[in-house]
Model the fold of this input.
Amino acid sequence: MDLHTVERFERVWIGFAIVMALLMGLAATYNVVRAVVPTVRSSVGQHVDIKNLAATPFGKPELKRLGFQTYELYMVAHIFEFTPSEIKLKAGDSLEMHLTSADVIHGFQILGTTINVEVIPGEVATVAYRFKKPGIYMIVCNEYCGFGHHKMLARIVVTA
Done:
């Protein structure tokens, strides 16, 4: 190889390294900006007796209106389904979700949002979110919970 060919290869690799560094910098900046803008508030720490869910608000999992554009949801994850399986809101509504599992560990992820929570039997995970845009937000279990795991879906319907 002559000197000019080696210099050409070096320029290509240096250019490639610069482009990759710029892309990684953009990705890091994007993640920092997303982390600074709080859209989700979550906490874990409350406990319930999964053998006696009927004596708790999870005995009748439902959506409750707390005030103007403010709702509270008690949701139970159990083998291959979320209860309730459909929630209807309007754009701009705030939803505080209280989640627990009646049997095994489940995942709770709302696609199109930053919500991704592990739902553990007997523990209550609380997540708050304001749905700004109309649409259908699918809820999926992203923690393998058995053979019918892929069918464990629910949805939040947000209208204008």
In short: The first helix runs from residue 3 to 36. The chain has a mean pLDDT of 89.
